[in-house]
């Protein structure tokens, strides 16, 4: 099978490798689509937790093509998505039930061979069937699972007012999740472009602020005036160091700031501890997910959370270009 391989940071090649063999508790998935996300760009640069050489791709959608002897409940041809996380179940955190903090956290497409390939072997307990979603739409189940984990951690009270920075697939899903889980108002602030248009089309938020890419400063000032008391919940979902710095300024007294982007390892924030102390602000980190796939499939496959505009492409280089050009909300590779 053909696969995308990062031999080392910034060394990408299409390679031919054998189709993986499956163990008795695994299934073989023939990949039909695999989403590309910001994490893949960070991995390509040698950042985040990647291990090389690596076949990336962690937003895996496909059909079951082979079933291990001990697997029940699946048939060849079933359409499915795969939870890419692998947990050791034995470390300090796993034994405390804090699986997302696993000290030996492995992830298909991040630390082990993933879905930018013809086939993926995976334990059947990590595989979930889909019915209504198209293959393109289903690439958003993994990001939605991460967003659900984020919302679990945020645990917003009924009727909160929320501000989300970023209108990528994650921001759009987080906005809808907040609305479905009791937020009275969701404001999405993001750079002007196709993503904010899509957020509007999907009615992901209640209000939208389209920031000027070159000179957003006056708009930031206006936002401070328009939302004088800030927000109960502010989510930084752009991965921008600058926005992470500024986001704290929009948190209401007693509110929470969730840091939700993938940042460069060298990024730093400069926050006022006095504000955090006096305003009793909670800072929340949210990373990846475990065990959130069933809820993500339920929300997306039922259409309660809407996703759209996934752009499929066969050539990985062109897909990366398409993503960098910011002319699509979500780009997926079609092996
Ligand atoms: Zn991702
Ligand atoms: Zn563990």
Automatic annotation (TrEMBL):
Keywords: Metal-binding, Oxidoreductase, Zinc. The keyword Nucleus does not apply. It holds the Pfam family ADH_N. Its cofactor is Zn(2+). Residues 24-131 form the Alcohol dehydrogenase-like N-terminal domain. GO terms for molecular function: oxidoreductase activity; zinc ion binding. This is Enoyl reductase (ER) domain-containing protein. It comes from Psilocybe cyanescens. The lineage of its organism: Eukaryota, Fungi, Dikarya, Basidiomycota, Agaricomycotina.
């Amino acid at each position: 099978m053909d696969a995308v391989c990062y031999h080392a940071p910034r060394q990408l090649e299409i390679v031919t490798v054998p189709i993986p063999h499956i163990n008795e508790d695994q299934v073989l998935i023939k990949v039909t689509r695999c989403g590309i996300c910001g994490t893949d760009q960070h991995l390509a640069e040698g950042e985040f937790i990647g291990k090389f050489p690596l076949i990336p791709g962690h937003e895996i959608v496909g059909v079951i093509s082979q079933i291990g002897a001990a697997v029940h409940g699946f048939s060849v041809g079933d359409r499915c998505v795969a939870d890419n996380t692998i947990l050791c179940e034995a470390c300090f955190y796993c034994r405390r039930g804090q699986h997302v903090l696993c000290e030996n956290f492995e992830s298909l497409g991040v630390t082990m061979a993933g879905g930018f390939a013809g086939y993926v072997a995976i334990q059947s307990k990590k595989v979930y069937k889909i019915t209504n979603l198209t293959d393109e739409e289903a690439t958003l189940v993994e990001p939605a699972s991460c967003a659900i984990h984020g919302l679990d951690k945020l645990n917003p009270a009924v009727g909160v007012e929320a501000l989300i920075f970023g209108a990528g697939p994650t921001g759009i899903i987080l906005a809808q999740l907040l609305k479905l889980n009791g937020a009275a108002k969701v404001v999405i602030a993001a750079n002007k472009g196709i993503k904010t248009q899509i957020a509007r089309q999907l009615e992901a938020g209640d209000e939208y602020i389209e920031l000027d890419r070159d000179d957003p400063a006056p708009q930031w000032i206006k936002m401070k005036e328009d939302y004088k008391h800030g927000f109960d919940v502010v989510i930084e979902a752009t991965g921008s160091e600058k926005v992470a710095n500024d986001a704290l300024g929009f948190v209401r007294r007693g509110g929470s700031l969730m840091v939700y982007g993938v940042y460069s390892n060298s990024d730093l924030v400069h926050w006022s501890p006095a504000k955090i102390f006096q305003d009793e602000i909670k800072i929340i980190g949210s990373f990846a997910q475990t065990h959130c796939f069933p809820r993500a499939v339920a929300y997306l496959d039922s259409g309660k959370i809407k996703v759209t505009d996934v752009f499929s492409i066969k050539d990985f280089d062109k897909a990366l270009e398409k993503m960098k050009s910011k002319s699509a909300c979500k780009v997926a590779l079609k092996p």
